[in-house]
C-alpha cells in the first residue's frame, strides 16, 4: 500500500499533524509519498517526495489535509488522467463539505481506508470540450463574462433539442456533487450525489422566467457564445481552478465524464447529516 499525502498550499497548521502522520505510517510499514509543497512543511528528512501533479498516478490512496478547494484540484487531476484512486479528505479549512472528516477522526478514518473497511462514494464528474481541448470538473463548469459587470448571451442545446437562449451574468453546469456549491448560492436545487443528473442554473438571469433545470446525465449539453455578446470574451472555468476564454461563435460541449471519482467515506455520517451540519439545512 502506498499513500500519497497532499496538503493545502502553505498550510503551516498541519505541520505537527504531518510529523505525527509520518511516524504512524512508517510504524505500519506503509510507503508514504509526499507532495513537494507538503514536504516543505516538515523538518528535513529522508522521504519520498514527488510533484503534486503526478502523485495520484503513483499511489493506492490520496490523503488530503486541507479544504474543499484542495480536494477539487486533486480530483480534477485524477479525473483528467482517468485514474481509479480513492481520495480521503480531512478538513483543515472552514466549511469542509467534501473534506467532511474532522481532524480527530483522521487516524480512525485512515485505518479503515487502509484495511478496506471504509465505504466509497462514487461521484460523477463532468467533462467540457472546446475543439480538441477538454477538461474535467467534479463540482461545476461555469461560463461568465471576463470583464465588466455585463450580461452574457448563451444559446443552450441538450442532446439534439434546442433549450433556450440565456441572457444572464453567466451559466452554471453542475454535477450532483456541485449542486451544493456555486449552484446552490445561485438558487439552484440540491441534488443527491447518487443521482445521475446534471443541473443547468442561470446566474442572475435578465428574464426571471429562466429557472434552473435538472436533466439526465447521459444527455450532451452544448453552450454557444451568441452574437449578442458584441465581441466580449466569455470565460469558462472548471471547479474554479482553471479555465479559458470562449470566443464568440464557439461552443463548449459538456458531458458526463467516462469515470467517476471515488471519495472515501470512513465515518458513520450520511449525506443528510452532512447537509444539516455543514449547511444548517432544515434548521428553523
Layout of helices and strands:
Layout: E1 2-7, H1 15-27, E2 31-35, H2 36-39, E3 48-50, E4 61-66, H3 68-81, E5 87-91, H4 106-115, E6 119-123, E7 126-130, E8 133-137, E9 140-145, E10 152-158, E11 161-168, E12 170-174, H5 182-185, E13 197-203, E14 213-216, E15 221-225, E16 234-238, E17 242-246, E18 251-256, E19 261-265, H6 271-278
Parallel strand pairs: 1-2, 1-4, 2-3, 4-5
Antiparallel strand pairs: 6-19, 7-8, 7-18, 9-12, 9-16, 10-11, 10-15, 12-13, 13-14, 15-18, 16-17
Provide a brief overview of the structure:
The protein is α+β, with helices and mostly antiparallel strands and 284 residues long. The chain has helices at residues 15-27, 36-39, 68-81, 106-115, 182-185, 271-278; strands spanning 2-7, 31-35, 48-50, 61-66, 87-91, 119-123, 126-130, 133-137, 140-145, 152-158, 161-168, 170-174, 197-203, 213-216, 221-225, 234-238, 242-246, 251-256, 261-265.
Please, how many domains? Answer: 2
Cα gyration radius (Å):
20 Å
Please work out how many helical segments DSSP would assign: 6
**Considering DSSP H and I runs of 4 or more, what fraction of the residues is helical?**
10-25%
In the CATH hierarchy, what is the class of the largest domain?
Answer: Alpha Beta
**Mind telling me which CATH architecture of the largest domain this is?**
3-Layer(aba) Sandwich
The CATH homology group name of the largest domain: Probable inorganic polyphosphate/atp-NAD kinase, domain 1
> Strand order, biggest sheet?
8-7-18-15-10-11
Structural class: alpha+beta
Shape: elongated
- Quaternary status: single chain
For the biggest sheet, the summary is: 6 strands, antiparallel
The SSE order reads: EHEHEEHEHEEEEEEEHEEEEEEEH
Strand content: 35-45%
Distance between the termini: 46 Å
Report the mean per-residue pLDDT as an integer. 91
Which residue ranges are poorly predicted, with pLDDT under 50 across at least 5 consecutive positions? none
CATH topology of the largest domain: Rossmann fold
β-strand number: 19
Amino acid at each position: 500500500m502506498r499513500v500519497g499525502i497532499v496538503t493545502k498550499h502553505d498550510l503551516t497548521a498541519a505541520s505537527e499533524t504531518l510529523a505525527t502522520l509520518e511516524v504512524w505510517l512508517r510504524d505500519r510499514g506503509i510507503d508514504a509519498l509526499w507532495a513537494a509543497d507538503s514536504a516543505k512543511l516538515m523538518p528535513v528528512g529522508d522521504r519520498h517526495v514527488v510533484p503534486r501533479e503526478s502523485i495520484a498516478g503513483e499511489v493506492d490512496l490520496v490523503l488530503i489535509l486541507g479544504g474543499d478547494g484542495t480536494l477539487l484540484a486533486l480530483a480534477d487531476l485524477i479525473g483528467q488522467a482517468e485514474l481509479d484512486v480513492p481520495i480521503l479528505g480531512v478538513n483543515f479549512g472552514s466549511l469542509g463539505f467534501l473534506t467532511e472528516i474532522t481532524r480527530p477522526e483522521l487516524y480512525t478514518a485512515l485505518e479503515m481506508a487502509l484495511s478496506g473497511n471504509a465505504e466509497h462514494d462514487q461521484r460523477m464528474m463532468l467533462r467540457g470540450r472546446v475543439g480538441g481541448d477538454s477538461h474535467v470538473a467534479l463540482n461545476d463548469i461555469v461560463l461568465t463574462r471576463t470583464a465588466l459587470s455585463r450580461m452574457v448571451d448563451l444559446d443552450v442545446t441538450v442532446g439534439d433539442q434546442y433549450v433556450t437562449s440565456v441572457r444572464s451574468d453567466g451559466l452554471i453546469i453542475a454535477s450532483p456533487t456541485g449542486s451544493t456549491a456555486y449552484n446552490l448560492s445561485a438558487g439552484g436545487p440540491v441534488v443527491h450525489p447518487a443521482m445521475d443528473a446534471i443541473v443547468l442554473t442561470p446566474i442572475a438571469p435578465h428574464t426571471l422566467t429562466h429557472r434552473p433545470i435538472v436533466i439526465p446525465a447521459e444527455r450532451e449539453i452544448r453552450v454557444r457564445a451568441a452574437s449578442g455578446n458584441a465581441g466580449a470574451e466569455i470565460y469558462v472555468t472548471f471547479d474554479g481552478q482553471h479555465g479559458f476564454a470562449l470566443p464568440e461563435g464557439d461552443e463548449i460541449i459538456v458531458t458526463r465524464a467516462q469515470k467517476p471519482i471515488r471519495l472515501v467515506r470512513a465515518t458513520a455520517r450520511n449525506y443528510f447529516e452532512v447537509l444539516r451540519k455543514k449547511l444548517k439545512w432544515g434548521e428553523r
